[in-house]
Structure formats: C-alpha cells, structure tokens
Write a structure and sequence with these properties.
Oligomer: single chain
Strand content: under 5%
Number of helices: 22
Structural class: mainly alpha
CATH topology of one domain: Growth Hormone, Chain: A
Shape: globular
Distance between the termini: 54 Å
CATH superfamily of one domain: MFS general substrate transporter like domains
Radius of gyration: 26 Å
Order of helices and strands: HHHHHEEHHHHHHHHHHHHHHHHH
Length: 544
C-alpha cells in the first residue's frame, strides 16, 4: 500500500514538474518573440510602417472622423453668437437695436456640453473594457443621432442648453478613444475639419434671414453617420483589447486584418501579439489592476498628472479664442462675413496641422520640443494681441485686420504643435493597461479647464459684460507662460521609445529632461510569474 502511495506521489510531482517546465517554455517563447518584434519596431521607418499597416491607417482615419463631428458641433455653438438670425431667435434685444445672447447663456451652453463630456468620459473607461471598442462606439453613435433632433427643433435657448448637455456625453466618448503617434495627431486635424465645415456652412447661410439659416447647419450633423458607422462596422476589434481579454488567437486575426504582411517578409503576427502580451503583463505587474484609483497610485500618479496637464494646457494657451473666433473678431471690429472669412483661414490651418506635425516628426524633431516651442510661440502671439488693444480708436479698422491676422498666426503655432502633438503625447504618457481610463481622466481635466475658460471668455468679450476685447490676450499670455514653465520641467520625450520602455523609465523615476538619453532594456526585467534566472536573453531571431 505504501508503495502505491509513493508511486502516486511521484507521478503527481512529475506531472507538476512537467507543467512548470511547459509554462517556462511558453514564457520563454513569449519573451523571445516580444524581443524580436520590439527590435523590428525600433528599426521600422515611417514608410515601412505605412506599407505594413495601410488598412489600420485607413480605419483609423475614418473612425477619427468622430472628432470632426465634435469639432463641427462645438464650432456651431461658439460661432453662432456672431450670426444675426441665430441672435434674433435666441438672443435679447439691446439698446442699440441689435440682438445678443447674454454672456451667462453663452457660458451655460458651452459648459453644458463640457459637463456632458465628463459623464461620457467616465462611461468610456467602463464601456470600452466591458464591451470592446466597436460595440460601445456604435451604441453611442445611435444615441447621438437621436440627440441631434433636439438642436434641430429647439424652440428656445433653454432647449439648446439641454441638447448641449446630452450631446456632450457622446463627444466625451469620441474624444477619449485614443490611438498612438502619427495617427493620434490626425484626431486634431479631424476636429479642425469639422470646425472648418461648420464655419463654411454658417457663412453660406448669410444670404438667408429665416429660421433655416441656423436649422440647416444643425441638420447637417447627420451627414457624418453613414461614413463613420460603415468604417466602424468593417474594422476589426482592437488587438490590444483582445490581448487584455486573453483572446490571443482573436488578437492575431485582428492584427492580420489590419496589416499587409506581404510588404514585409520579416513581419510576424505571432511575435507582435507576444509583444502586446509582454507589455500587458509588464503593466499588470506595475499596476496590479485597472481601476480609476490605480491612475493615482505609485508612478501612475506622475503619468496621470502629465497627461491631464497636456490637455489643460490647450485651454490655458488661448484655445478659447479659437472656439469663439468669429465672436472675438466681431468685437474687435470685423463685421459681417469678414469675421467668418478670417475664421475659415484659421480653421483651415487646423485641418493641415497633423500633416505639418508629421513632417516635423519625420525630420526627427521630438514631440517634447514641438510642444515647448509651440507654447513659446503662442505666448508671444497672445501678448501681441493684447497690445493691439492699445491702438487708438482712429485706427480701429487697421487694428481689427491686424487682430485677425495675428489669430491666424496663433492658429499656426497651436495647430502645428500644442493642439496636435498633445493627442500623441497623451496616448504615449499613459500605460497601455490604464490608457482608456487615463485618457478619460485627461479629458475630464480638459473639460474642467474648459468650463473655467468658457465662463471667463464670454464675459471678457461680450460688450454687455466686461468688454475686454483684445486685452484678454494679456490674461491668456500669462497662463500660457505658466504652462510653458511647467512642461519644461515635467514633460518627458517619448520619441523612439516602446510602451514597455516608457513604463520602465517612469518606474525608475527618471527626470523628464533625461528620458531621451537614458538607456533602458524592457527585457531586463522579470515578470511576476517568472523568476529572473528563467528569463531568456534578449537575443533576437527573425522568423522566416
């Protein structure tokens, strides 16, 4: 009997040892594949990336038109305030016979949308992880299609406020779905495309003097749905999300649908999925979960702070002038269609911001450098706008034209740096495991800052309130300078780093200005389920 028990015990030990050995082999293979894929990613040029991921690029471009929808709607809200038919419907009669929407209502409508976005951002962190990107975004699109009817039929400014609050929920979802690197910056250009179309539509309505002058622009919001919904339906689910769910074979299939392997014989979907697995496992070890509270624990607190301040900086760098551009131009002395002509030039720059930024990055300019140079240029431009307010009344027309011209210069600095690069930096500063939640928090910070500036700006510009006009430039130049100082000391350079390398640099608390030159090896670290002596070397093998 004792002999039988010893035999059974020996058998169980051999089985356990065999299972452990198999597990070690699996982990070693994952490390080897991940290291190989990482090395290839380091060596991959921009052109090689475009050839390898053409379908991913196309889907990203189409789905990013969600941002165009938001840009279109936000531009309508801010630029209708200089549109006579809209003011007669929703504004109040002034002593000079004109109509103005009161500053309090301007601030209320704009902030209603921002508050709605905060709700949408919280929903995104939960909805994406539970249902996946495709199902969740398609549901939100159906919701937004219904909300547009509120704007179209709004009989009073009170109902417009309700519509703005509900629409903001969808916009919060759209803006928090993040990509990385070059295509992330495309999101800002999409926002500019939406703004440009909105301004062009309003300007084309200047020949009308009836209710359709403002109802037609609202109705055109439905034009986005067929294009974007078709793109979402045809696109595969995110391979990163599938890896987080443990669905590695599905992740491989999704990756193959996003790539053209024939263009690169060295590409291996299996190796790339293992690189995703390695990154995810590394981040699991560092984060121990994926709740919103984790974003404020340990090294993640630093990353969350930087990500939030990147978007806050957009508002404090004078972006509020952009949202109220035609209204600002009208108060500066540009009347009628001239204000909208300047706004179209400004928003036209928004649409090409990503392409100019791509060119800078292709030439080797780091994203930290682009961001800091952009903030410096914005600060100087805002100061000039403020000084233009000192021009005597006799030269008001010339000062108004100079104001319009400087706003275009401001738009160039903003769109070629801060406005565009922030999207890329936000995606790269956060961990992959907490990215959806961190990006959601960053957009909440953006919206909180936007609420503050949207309260201040209508009062600064409205002739029935503070009536600062150009002098508001001095105020925003001061806040922009503070942001420049902050990012000089806190913003790292992510260019040329993989997600895993960024994780380790933050984990080791490397100062922001030393990120670019610090040597780090993501495979010189043992994962939680693997002891260091079992970890394979980082010898890379190309799969053929």
């Amino acid at each position: 009997m004792e002999k039988i028990e010893r035999t059974r015990s020996s058998s169980l030990e051999n089985e356990k040892h065999g299972h452990t050995t198999t597990q070690r082999v699996v982990v070693q293979n994952m490390f080897t594949n991940a290291a190989s894929a990482t090395e290839k990613e380091h060596k991959m040029s921009i052109l090689q990336g475009v050839r390898l991921y053409p379908k991913a690029i196309i889907f990203s471009v189409i789905i990013s038109l969600c941002c165009a929808m938001e840009g279109y709607d936000i531009a309508l809200l801010g630029n209708f305030y200089a549109f006579p038919p809209f003011n007669r419907k929703y504004g109040e009669l002034q002593s000079d016979g004109t109509y103005q929407v009161p500053a309090a209502w301007q601030a209320g409508i704009s902030n209603g949308a921002q508050c709605g976005q905060i709700i949408g951002l919280f929903l995104t962190g939960w909805g994406v992880e539970k249902f996946g990107y495709k199902k969740f975004i398609l549901t939100v699109f159906a919701y937004q299609a219904c909300i547009i009817t509120i704007f179209f039929f709004a009989p009073s400014i009170h109902i417009l406020l309700v519509g703005a609050c509900f629409a903001g929920i969808a916009f919060g979802v759209f803006m928090s779905v993040a990509l990385r690197g070059y295509l992330t910056t495309w999101g800002n250009s999409c926002w500019g495309i939406g703004q440009l179309i909105a301004i062009a539509v309003i300007r084309s309505m200047f020949g009308r003097d009836d209710q359709w002058a403002y109802r037609i622009p609202y109705a055109l919001q439905w034009m986005w749905f067929p294009i974007v919904v078709t793109g979402i339906i045809l696109a595969p689910e995110s391979p990163w999300w599938l890896v987080r769910q443990g669905r590695y074979e599905d992740a491989k299939k999704s990756l193959l649908r996003l790539t053209s392997p024939k263009t690169d014989p060295t590409f291996s979907a299996e190796e790339t999925v293992d690189m995703m697995r390695h990154t995810n496992e590394l981040e699991k070890d560092m984060t121990e979960g994926a709740s919103y509270l984790d974003c404020f624990k340990g090294v993640n607190l630093r990353r969350t702070e930087i990500v939030c301040m990147l978007f806050v900086s957009q508002n404090l760098a004078g972006n509020t002038f952009s949202n109220y551009s035609t209204y600002f131009f009208a108060q500066a002395g540009l009347t009628g269609t001239v204000a909208y002509d300047f706004a179209m030039g400004q928003y036209g720059l928004n649409t090409i911001g990503a392409f100019v930024t791509w060119a800078f990055m292709a030439w080797g300019v780091g994203r930290r450098t682009l961001f800091l140079v952009g903030l410096s240029g914005l600060c100087c431009t805002l100061l000039i706008l403020g000084f233009l307010g000192l021009v005597p009344e006799a030269h008001k027309d010339s000062a108004a034209l100079a104001t319009g011209s400087m706003m275009i210069v401001w738009a160039a600095f903003y769109q070629f740096s801060v406005g565009t690069v922030a999207f890329s930096l936000v995606a790269e500063m956060s961990t992959r495991r907490l990215q959806v939640k961190t990006v959601a928090l960053s957009r909440i910070a953006y919206n909180i800052a936007a609420i503050i500036v949207n309260v201040l700006t209508p009062y600064m510009l409205n002739p029935t309130a503070w009536n600062w006009g150009n002098f508001a430039g001095f105020f925003w130049a001061g806040t922009c300078f503070l942001m420049c100082v902050y990012h000089y000391y806190r913003l790292p350079e992510p260019s040329g780093r993989t997600f895993a390398e960024m994780d380790l640099l933050f984990e080791r608390r490397i100062p922001a200005r030393q990120f670019k030159h610090t040597d780090v090896n993501a495979f010189d670290v043992a994962l939680q389920h693997q002891v260091r002596e079992d970890k394979p070397g980082v010898e890379h093998h190309d799969r053929v």
